Amino acid sequence: MSFFGKLKQRLFTSSSRLDKGLDEIVSQGGEPEAEDDQRLAAQTLAPEPAPEPAPEPGPLPEPAPEPEPVPAPEPEEPIEPEPRPVPQPEEPEQPEDPEELPDEPEELPEELPGEQPVEMPRDWPLEAPQPQGDSLPEPAPMEIPVGNPSEIPLGSASAATSAADAAGVSVSQGAAKVGFLGRLLGRSSAPASAEAAAAAKTPAARIPAAKTSAAPAGPVIRRALDDDMLEQLEELLIASDMGVDTALRVTANLAEGRYGRKLSVTDIKRALADEIARIMEPVARPMPIYTRTPQVVLVVGVNGSGKTTTIGKLASQFRAAGKSVIIAAGDTFRAAAVEQLQVWGERAGVPVLTAPEGSDPASLAFDAMTKAEAEGADLLLIDTAGRLQNRADLMEELAKIVRVIRKKDPTAPHNTLLVLDATTGQNALSQVEIFRKLADVSGLVMTKLDGTAKGGVLVALADKFGLPIHAIGVGEQIDDLAPFDPQEFARALTGLDA
Ligand SMILES: Nc1nc2c(ncn2[C@@H]2O[C@H](COP(=O)(O)OP(=O)(O)OP(=O)(O)O)[C@@H](O)[C@H]2O)c(=O)[nH]1
Fold first, then answer.
1. Residue 274 alpha carbon to ligand 1 centre in Å
2. Within a domain: 195
3. Which of 26, 186, 350, 425 could be a cystine partner for 454, CB 3.0 to 4.6 Å?
4. Where in the cell is it found (predicted)?
């Protein structure tokens, strides 16, 4: 089975809900179409173009003068990432034990020049080039790589890229690599046999095959888009966890230029997929990589959301991309969480720093910073507790971790990733709201998109918060984390094949 097919299977629950719902909506009040009508409909599938504006009478206004080009200032010193504010606890701060923690600097710099995070184009090679000099911020052309090369079958895009990199040849992955979601949708051109072997190892292989949206034999059913149908579509999108506001916006946009026209299920899927991709496009951004090391990535989220698993996957993939990584097991209150992280650390070949149960996570974070600096690590991934039961405590804990790591690097943490569990549906929205208050969230990772009918929540999140979505988790295996591709996600969610 192709990797593309895996994704389709994994998003089966979400797409099948939409599939089934759309079938029902269109068949109610819809009618089979004669062949001639089908040809006509195919020609008029796109929304009607807006009428051309009538030429304005009278003279045209003078064109506005072009603004003077402003030369970009050349940085003389290395540019550092901007520090994000330390989240302030609601309760008055307790004085820290000076024996436990090193002195805080008198005052954190108000503002540091910000290093522009470099977002990685999707077809960059996996290997980041080495910095050319001390003074220039060096963009690291890397997005979260797909899969662990040791597990990537020969002939896959990543393997091809690595080989080409080794040979000093630049490879456009666009040609060889179909995105992760795309591969799960079944459009991979990679050899099927090796991928089938890899897929067979995953739980996804045991999920029943997804219903395909290939046109059924016989006449296509079409239904004229009217108010009733729009209302039904709204309800269906709400049931898919898109949220009321987003569902209303999506259906309103879908109606534009199509109202009164006869649509088939595939027409609606295409229109929906376009609309969803349009919403998701601006938030699909790989995690920025900075030249400043260690780059500190704070990972937050409620217990069970998939933080540990995501850290393990990230560590493995960054390491496979040639980065040196250290993990700090910051949830010191749960021995099981620490043990789980150690297992992932072993799998990824990455050291995991731990502290005795119940000890201060901030001092572990400080030690981890010291070690990461001493060892010249590229990335430090810090796990944190996710107990929301006592928000004030959690807020203070996160704030203290941030204060302490800023003693070492005032610009840290460079990324604060909020890990969300897709199966929680609309609850993910309130988690974002809460964690944005607790920590300065810089991006999202959505886990467990496999096996949930609530994948639509990602659209609601993008629409409501506009926070970057760096990656998605679609399984429990080490290579089941992928950069977020809005087009492929939209197609997978709507169950569209092509
Ligand atoms: N199906 C699926 N399961 C996942 C995914 N990500 C994580 N999980 C599973 O979700 C469960 C919880 O994941 P953890 O990584 O332990 O979550 P956590 O946020 O670290 O939880 P605590 O350790 O309790 O703080 C585990 O059984 C993982 O295997 C995913 O993308 N898909």
1. 31
2. no
3. 425
4. Cell inner membrane; Cell membrane; Cytoplasm
